[in-house]
Prior knowledge:
The chain has one domain (3-139). It contains four helices and seven strands. It has helices at residues 16-25, 68-75, 96-113, 128-139; strands at 3-9, 30-32, 43-50, 57-67, 86-92, 116-119, 124-126. It has a seven-stranded antiparallel beta sheet with strand order 2-3-4-5-1-6-7. Helix 1 (16-25) packs across helix 3 and helix 3 (96-113) runs antiparallel to helix 4 (128-139). The longest helix has 18 residues, at 96-113.
Amino acid sequence: MSMEMQVFLKSPLPELAAIEHAVQSLGVDLHVATTDVNLAQQSGYLPMTLRTGEDAEETGCEVYVEKAADMIEELELEGVDPALDTVVSFRWASDMLEFGVACAFSAAIARLTGGVIYEGEEGKFLTVEETADAARRYIKID
């Protein structure tokens, strides 16, 4: 079973380097594992690396970018600001490290854009702080 989290934001998306910097400012050493990513056109698995050096660990999650209106309608969400025209969806299976990765990137994007985070499993909106705390908890930051 796969789980999802969305970040609704007003386009344009931040540059990938800015997102990675924001992730690291949350205390998570996470990097996209490839340099040829156009996040605005991302549709599928996005490989990432947690930590660097000997302790590096390969991870990632599925990332999809699309128009927010379609997702708002699909999820039957109410109260989402109509100015938020883009949604970044993160999808993972039962791997809780991937959940932590999705939380870290969601929190970073929301912080950079003033976006809102929706967690589909519980069907509720989360703050950046709640999402960042979950990222640190499931990535097990020492």
